[in-house]
Amino acid sequence: MGAVESKLSSGLPVRLDGVSKTYETSNGPMRALEDVSLQVREGEFLSIVGPSGCGKSTLVMMVSGLLPATSGQIFVGDEKVQKPYTKLGFVFQQDVLLDWRTVLQNVLLPVEIKHLAPVELYRQKALDLLKMSGLSGFEQRYPYELSGGMRQRVSICRALVTSPPLLLMDEPFGALDALTREQMNSDLVQIWQQTRNTVLFITHNIDEAVFLADRVLVMSKRPGRILSLLDLKDIPRPRSLKVKDTPEFQKFVANVRDTFVNQGILS
Amino acid sequence: MSQRQENGAGRLWKWLKSNYITVLLPVIGILLWEILVRVFRTPTYLLPAPSVIIGTTLEKIHLLLFQSWVTLYEVLIGFLLGVVVAVPLAVVVVYIPPLEKAFYAFLVSAQAVPKVALAPILVAWFGYGLLPKLVVAFLVCFFPIVINTVIGLQAVSVEMLYLARSLGATGSQQFWRFRLPKALPAIFGGFKVGITLAVVGAVVGEYVAAGQGLGYWQVVAASNLDTPMVFSILVLLSVMGIILFYLIDGLEGLVIKGDPNRAQRRQAAAR
Ligand SMILES: Nc1ncnc2c1ncn2[C@@H]1O[C@H](COP(=O)(O)OP(=O)(O)OP(=O)(O)O)[C@@H](O)[C@H]1O
Ligand SMILES: [Mg+2]
Predict the structure, then answer these.
(1) Could you tell me which residue, B2 or A98, shows the higher pLDDT?
(2) Contact at 8 Å (CB) between B233 and B217?
(3) Closest Cα to atom 5 of ligand 1
(4) Are residues B104 and B214 located together in one domain of the fold?
(5) Neighbour tally for B161: CB within 10 Å
(6) Residue A80 and residue A11: Cα distance in Å, rounded?
(7) How far apart (Å, rounded) are the C-alpha atoms in residues B55 and B30?
(8) Nearest CA among A176, A245, A169 for reference residue A213
(9) Would you say residue A89 lies in a domain?
């Protein structure tokens, strides 16, 4: 089983060793993240939930190398992260699309910046991704002609087009309505089941976290610590939205919620 | 071919239908002007009737066109100089933060100086040739371009820079593919203000020191109490400003794609 899994996966493992972050602010130092140690397996989908301001964004920013850790070490694969790590796809909370590029040009931006070849192959891949995301016919449109949900889907396609071994998603669906969000969840699971890269997925939505992930990381209030790490292997894959009605699914959702209630984060 | 012309006429008709007030108001204004001047027999040296102004313009069209060309030449060179100096300077200011503070301090004081009042000094320095006019045109259009370019280049969001860096974009890629395209709408805004000001600058330069150009001829006409000629030149200068403005606007449309603000304006205009 393990062997088959690692064969399927094109992801890289991520390791955090005692990672902490202190921001220097005008009011003095501010502890955002406290001693987080964690191993994410290659090809694993890890959801991260926690109250607002607990350091989730800080955590993935440090994994991406865009933000230095105050102490501790981060490894992606065998490589220690010390500068922006470029073999990853990053979906930000706000879709950062470039206004002056068409949808297709936006998706192909990483290919262009990294001078990847053959371009034709990536172009085809981009078109496939757009089609899979229900954006056929919009390839030549500009971002201002799209809805919020469509824009976010474009930025997900952009993050996926180079087949990065690691995908970081910081509340990618936060700005979407409930219906679009469910659809996007379902689409994301479909895509990931084919690509099997390692994913760190931040969300406020417990349902979403459980539905998508292999494991859910539950974080405390600031400074963020790991409260629990739930293994969801009892919820079988491949998953469809129907899985949300099963008792296993409900059990895990309740489990996460209880963790928050016990911590006084929820009441 | 005729199909195409019909289309053109159809489009014009449609445009007129939705913009009739824009067209009608000036027409009414001019008619009223004509009537009032005739009814009250206003002396021509005070306020010539529009028909007189048009007559004078047609009569002296050769002289006026040639003088327009002289002024236009000064405007364009002054403006291009402004662009060539202002845009790179803005880039330097944005990329070297210590310069930014010094730059703003300089800018505030420079803004307070009425640039056109420098014209007499420039004449003392550069004589009566082309140069003082270019310099005034350059000076007045330089500041809006520099300010807008700096603001535009700083408009790129933190997230966008994060994106650039996590894609491994080099410094020059970050500039050419992120910062500059993001700044273009603001830069073109600066160009539009700048080109209209450059016309003002060139004309003021001609007022002070020139043997030709529309500004010079306006001074000559005024001293001869040739008021229709003064008005005729005023109209030509306005037309020049408007044409230059829309040329830059058109260029902006060609260069900038997908600008949400521009699209919004276009949709509003079509309504
Ligand atoms: N650049 C910064 N400088 C100072 N403090 C910061 C900075 N960025 C974040 N913080 C602080 O660090 C804490 C964690 O921020 P972070 O953005 O990681 O939270 P988060 O868990 O992503 O919250 P949310 O769910 O609301 O996005 C917050 O209290 C925030 O105020
Ligand atoms: Mg966040």
Answers:
(1) A98
(2) yes
(3) A23
(4) yes
(5) 16
(6) 16
(7) 15
(8) A169
(9) yes
Confidence check: pLDDT of B118 > 70: yes
Question: ipTM of the predicted structure?
Answer: 0.90
Q: What is the CATH number of the domain that holds A239?
A: 3.40.50.300
Q: At what angle do helices A119-132 and A178-195 cross, to 10 degrees?
A: 140
* Contact B256/A at CB under 8 A: yes
Residue B234 is part of a domain; what is its CATH number?
1.10.3720.10
Q: Is the CB of A36 under 6 A from ligand 1?
A: no
User: Could you tell me which residues are beta bridge partners of residue A28?
Assistant: A25
Q: Which atom of ligand 1 is nearest to the CA of A21?
A: 12
CA A177 – ligand 1 centroid, Å: 24
In a shared domain, residues B140 and B197: yes
Q: pLDDT tens-digit profile of B56-96?
A: 999 999 999 999 999 999 999 999 999 999 999 999 999 99
SS3 A139: coil
- Is A25 a pocket residue for ligand 1 (Cβ < 6 Å)? yes
Question: Which residue segment(s) compose the domain that A178 sits in?
Answer: 14-96+168-262
Parallel/antiparallel/unpaired status of strands A79-80 and A166-170: unpaired
Q: Is A73 a member of any domain?
A: yes
Q: Is the pLDDT of residue A54 over 90?
A: yes
Look up the domain containing B18 and give its range: 1-41
Domains: count for chain B: 2
pLDDT digits (tens, 9 = 90+) for B146-196: 999 999 999 999 999 999 999 999 999 999 999 999 999 999 999 999 999
